[in-house]
Amino acid sequence: QLQLVESGGGLVQPGGSLRLSCAASGFTLDYYAIGWFRQAPGKERERVSCISSSSSSGGSTNYADSVKGRFTISRDNAKNTVYLQMNSLKPEDTAVYSCAAGGLCLLGFDYWGQGTQVTVSS
Prior knowledge:
mainly beta; seven-stranded mixed beta sheet; globular
């Protein structure tokens, strides 16, 4: 079985921080590119960040301009988990956040988690 499970979402004030987790079972995350995506009601899904596999691009990272400098993606291979550290959160960051696994950040993704809600509001 291949499964991705997100956790760590919740309600946070503007300027606050959250750390999202993407835990894998049935496969090794280090072999895949892992992307974080978000989708707000009435808007298209947006890729916010991606981390490459070690075999493809040495674990290089990418960020959407809207989150650059505020979000950080990282991998803990011992826990088979990828994280998204979100700092200086804005109301515009409110969305359902999902993680996904694929061969390359440049290409499509094959496995998806169910998503976790992030709400930024005062």
